[in-house]
Write a structure and sequence with these properties.
Radius of gyration: 14 Å
Number of helices: 4
Largest sheet: 4 strands, parallel
Order of helices and strands: HEHEHEHE
Strand order of the largest sheet: 3-2-1-4
């Protein structure tokens, strides 16, 4: 995973929802994705405050974090601090993303079912695992 992520330092948006992401993966993200601005990791049951702090420290541009149902994260102040940088106020469920206009986004979004379909890897700045 580290080898793959290190080849994508320009990633600005990453979706890890409902994956086996853990603190080790977040440590890798924190050292390989300095341009990360948007991170979704809802229902990642193996993520704790340690991984969250690594991402907060290593991804200075991070301004949106969704970590709903991550029961290992107890430091909700850190989640709120990250979201406050981007102007996000409501952290409950999908309500946090209401201000984001996906139609105007240059990000490429896909779920696991089409992750291996044809796409231009040179234009990739958004990855969902």
């Amino acid at each position: 995973m580290e080898a793959v992520l290190s080849m994508l330092p320009g990633i600005t948006t990453l979706c890890l929802n409902e994956t086996d992401a853990d603190d080790a993966m977040l440590k890798i993200i924190s050292t390989t994705m300095p341009n990360l601005e948007w991170l979704e990791m809802d229902d990642c049951l193996h993520v704790t405050d340690i991984g969250l702090q690594d991402v907060a420290d290593g991804c200075p541009k991070l301004a949106y974090l969704s970590a709903n149902e991550c029961w290992g994260i107890l430091n909700t102040d850190l989640v709120e601090k990250i979201n406050a940088k981007g102007g996000w106020e409501d952290l409950e469920g999908s309500q946090a993303s209401e201000g984001y206009d996906y139609a105007d986004s240059d990000d490429y979004s896909f779920d696991d079912s089409d992750a291996y379909d044809d796409y231009d890897a040179d234009d990739l700045d958004h990855v969902g695992f």
